[in-house]
């Protein structure tokens, strides 16, 4: 007589300590959505390791086994030069999937894309965004296949380069039959980095990587114009830095093993970004500069990128909490002397004979003139401006001098050097142009034109409009706003500007004052004065506007316009934007 067959409970029911109801797959596994299987080896009872939920543990094992099965059935991807974790391995690492269940987009971070972004960043932006070194980034890229932090960092890095700079690449994404447009690639990378970030703990080691990831996402959203999202990630980066500094009382953040000065550069980059954003958006700041703050090393042998970054630090360092409290209107404890000294300090922060690459000089010069405009606006609010000031910077016409300095600086720079700095540089140009328009509205018709061989306010405004029109992102986002400002404040300049930019005139921009047909339109890099006839004189160095000439053509009664809120884009200008883009 045969012995009865011994029926063994499935592994999942034994692990959960519940009755296994046969036949297989059992009722318990079907209701819980588990794979019902029975192994010959007896399993240990009870909870194992750090797992707090048995159902989640079992489901994660099922996911890992399913991924292993899919991976074995896939044809092996081609091996490429480095980046072991990104290409040449699977996008769904079982180790990473078992921990956070984050399913990476297969093939999105290909070697060509990561390598192109890396080469672009380290050849162009190392002096203004010195948060990563080539060797340390390569190590993170090699770990991206198995480390969630590294994968998130690489995704955010590529998203930052594609979104914030003038970088362009024809990228063939495996999931599509066509080349991804830059907009599609940008959207995919930001979504991937944001989703990956949800599955890492930002306050756990490595904290430095979490700070860099938050900063890179801040730059991405600045490039997209998402100000609230950008401010959120900026505050996260500064908060993580502050929290790590308070906890350790030693060097606040683990330093890059390849570069001991990386901590200081990270701190000052956050200081610069936070203060620039605070001035633009009237926000508070969290990072304070004290005697214990990391200091940049004065190394005469360091490369030019480090020298440029020190100048950038010197530009933003004076804009502390005292200035911002005045800027935001919470206090009024400022004087003509203090603001005049601040103007002098900003002008001396970037020496006139400074010899640095165009990319670094573009950021320095545009930021310098923008900060001068911000101080002048605060002087306007305080009522310090005068027709006969004791300090030049307290003159009503001071923005004309700032606009001249900005134009002279940018005429010497290549378009590519300004493209690298993205939408942040365009916004600074836009704000300088808006202030210039306000001051030009106080000039008579004769005062708007150039005099002799000298360039005048019209030439400066045309040049700034050209920069905003030509730089990526400016034509669609800021040019309609600027033309709205011109139409509402200085309508006589609408037609000359639209002709200068070769734009089709729209009804909202129709000017009631016809332009002199004898005036020519110039599109050269250095514009010729409007009433200049001899084209051979185009190479002459423009001279500053004559003070006596301006005095005779300035209408002080119209100064009340200065300080008006920049107009919003209405429906008409949204339509205009779509037509010209």
Automatic annotation (TrEMBL):
Coiled coil: none annotated. Residues 9-38 form the Zn(2)-C6 fungal-type domain. GO terms for molecular function: DNA binding; DNA-binding transcription factor activity, RNA polymerase II-specific; zinc ion binding. PROSITE patterns: ZN2_CY6_FUNGAL_1 (PS00463), ZN2_CY6_FUNGAL_2 (PS50048). SMART domains: GAL4 (SM00066). Keywords: DNA-binding, Nucleus, Transcription, Transcription regulation. InterPro entries: Carb_Metab_Trans_Reg (IPR050797), Zn2-C6_fun-type_DNA-bd_sf (IPR036864), Zn2Cys6_DnaBD (IPR001138). The keyword Transcription regulation applies. It comes from the Eukaryota. It holds the Pfam family Zn_clus. PANTHER family: GLUCOSE TRANSPORT TRANSCRIPTION REGULATOR RGT1-RELATED-RELATED, ZN(II)2CYS6 TRANSCRIPTION FACTOR (EUROFUNG). This is Zn(2)-C6 fungal-type domain-containing protein.
């Amino acid at each position: 007589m045969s012995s009865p067959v011994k029926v063994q409970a499935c592994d999942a029911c034994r692990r959960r300590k519940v009755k296994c109801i046969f036949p297989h797959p059992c009722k318990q596994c079907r209701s819980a959505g588990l794979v019902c299987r029975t192994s010959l080896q007896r399993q240990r009872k009870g909870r194992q390791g750090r797992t707090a939920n048995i159902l989640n543990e079992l489901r994660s094992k099922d996911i890992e086994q399913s991924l292993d099965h899919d991976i074995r059935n896939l044809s092996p991807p081609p091996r490429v030069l480095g980046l072991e974790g990104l290409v040449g391995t699977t996008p769904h690492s079982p180790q990473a999937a078992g921990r956070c269940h984050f399913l990476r987009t297969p093939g999105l971070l290909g070697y060509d894309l990561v390598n192109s972004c890396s080469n672009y960043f380290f050849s162009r932006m190392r002096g203004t965004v010195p948060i990563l070194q080539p060797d340390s980034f390569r190590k993170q890229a090699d770990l991206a296949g198995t480390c969630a932090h590294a994968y998130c960092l690489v995704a955010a890095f590529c998203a930052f380069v594609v979104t914030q700079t003038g970088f362009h690449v024809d990228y063939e994404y495996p999931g599509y039959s066509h080349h991804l447009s830059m907009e599609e690639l940008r959207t995919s990378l930001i979504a991937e980095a944001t989703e990956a970030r949800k599955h890492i703990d930002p306050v756990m080691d490595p904290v430095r990587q979490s700070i860099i990831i938050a900063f890179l996402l801040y730059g991405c959203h600045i490039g997209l114009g998402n100000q609230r999202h950008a401010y959120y990630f900026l505050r996260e980066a500064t908060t993580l830095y502050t929290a790590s500094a308070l906890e350790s009382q030693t060097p606040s953040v683990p330093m890059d093993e390849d570069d001991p000065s990386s901590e200081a550069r990270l701190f000052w980059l956050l200081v610069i970004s936070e203060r620039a954003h605070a001035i633009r958006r009237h926000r508070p700041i969290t990072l304070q500069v004290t005697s214990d703050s990391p200091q940049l090393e004065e190394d005469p042998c360091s490369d030019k990128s480090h020298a440029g970054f020190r100048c950038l630090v010197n530009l933003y360092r004076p804009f502390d909490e005292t200035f911002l409290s005045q800027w935001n209107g919470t206090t009024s404890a400022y004087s003509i002397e203090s603001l005049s000294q601040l103007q002098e300090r900003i002008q001396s922060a970037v020496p006139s004979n400074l010899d640095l690459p165009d990319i670094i000089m573009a950021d320095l010069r545009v930021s310098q003139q923008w900060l001068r405009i911000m101080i002048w606006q605060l002087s306007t609010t305080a009522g310090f401006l005068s027709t006969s000031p004791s300090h030049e910077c307290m003159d009503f016409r001071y923005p004309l001098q700032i606009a001249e300095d900005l134009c002279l600086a940018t005429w010497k720079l290549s378009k590519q050097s300004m493209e690298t700095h993205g939408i942040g540089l365009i916004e600074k140009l836009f704000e300088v142009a808006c202030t210039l328009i306000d001051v030009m509205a106080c000039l008579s018709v004769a005062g708007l034109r150039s005099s002799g061989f000298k360039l005048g306010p019209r030439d400066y405004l045309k040049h700034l409009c050209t920069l905003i029109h030509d730089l990526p992102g400016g034509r669609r986002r800021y040019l309609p706003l600027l033309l709205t400002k011109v139409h509402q404040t200085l309508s006589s300049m609408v037609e000359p500007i639209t002709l200068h930019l070769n734009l089709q005139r729209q009804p909202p921009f129709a000017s009631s004052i016809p332009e002199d047909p004898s005036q020519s339109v110039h599109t050269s890099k250095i514009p010729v004065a409007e009433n200049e006839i001899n084209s051979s004189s185009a190479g002459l160095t423009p001279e500053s506007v004559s003070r006596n000439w301006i005095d005779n053509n300035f209408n002080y009664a119209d100064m009340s316009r200065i300080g008006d809120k920049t107009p919003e884009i209405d429906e008409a200008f949204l339509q205009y934007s779509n037509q010209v883009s």
